[in-house]
Amino acid sequence: MITRNTYPSPGYTLHALMQLTLTLNIQTWADEISVEHQLKNNNIADVYFQWGGDEFIIEVKTEYKQSLVESAMAKYWSQCDYLLFAAPEQKIPKEKSEQVWSWANPSLEKIGLIAIGYGGLVLVRPPERLKRKPGLRS
Length: 138
Description:
By secondary structure, the chain is of the alpha/beta class. The chain has a single domain (about 15-125), classed as Trna Endonuclease, Chain: A, domain 1 (3-Layer(aba) Sandwich), CATH 3.40.1350. The chain is built from three helices and six strands. It has helices at about 15-25, 65-75, 100; strands spanning about 30-40, 45-50, 55-60, 80-90, 110-115, 120-125. Strand 3, helix 2 (about 65-75) and strand 4 form a beta-alpha-beta unit. It is globular and about 35 Å long. The termini are far apart.
């Protein structure tokens, strides 16, 4: 089920096109998806979707920097089960470098990474569960 604001408004900035690309790819299997989704803490998630009872947030940025990843973690940590960061593939280093794979803050490594390019989406690093759900074994 697709909810409000699923498609970007006219203007089609790079950010809006990235949101559209993600939404079109995810909507085929997600239970619910929306763009610019208001969360309980009043922050706005770029892309929010539910799948199999879990809540996912994708922070969409046109750059890939540790400060942006840290900001996303601070805003969304308590608002979802899984957090992903999406950026243009040209902005993500090709090798498994320190920039992509080893942040100074180990909790940042739980954030998944999606590269968005002309060929579609590439899951560079899968996300890890951010919080333990009741009834799950650790």
